[in-house]
Amino acid sequence: MKVGIVMGSKSDYPVVERAEKILADFGIEYETRVISAHRTPRAAEKFASEAEANGIQVIIAAAGKAAHLGGVLAAFTPVPVIGLPIKSSTLDGLDSLLSIVQMPKGVPVATVAIDGAENAGILAAQILSVASPELRKAIIDYKAKMEADVLAIDAEFTSK
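The chain above was modelled as a monomer; its predicted structure follows.
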């Protein structure tokens, strides 16, 4: 199982590394690249076109501002693409979110919250878990722990 993580700029990395951590926690291999939809469109096409042959089963595309990266990659691959809008200085990431979520019919890009790298990693893991009972169990355990943590916090409040 392998996820391709592509960011439009090195400045996106502080957000992207949170997705890397989630993937690593689930034992999922990933490859992280910096490829711009606007500055290196041929590299974006090549990466997306060769993704499946290179063993990539899901792509996370992180981009800010115009955020066309996910759509460009999705246009050239049958591999599921998850768009990760990055909070930009201009419109606090709303521009990125709207650019990613408003894809034309036939070229879907799943979209997570602005700077929602953890959810991008979890969604990639859930997609991969369709073919992996071990990974599915790890996701079930992850969600059970999350529930237990919240219930423990709730118990602190209700015991007062």
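Helices lie at 13-25, 41-51, 69-75, 94-101, 117-129, 133-158.
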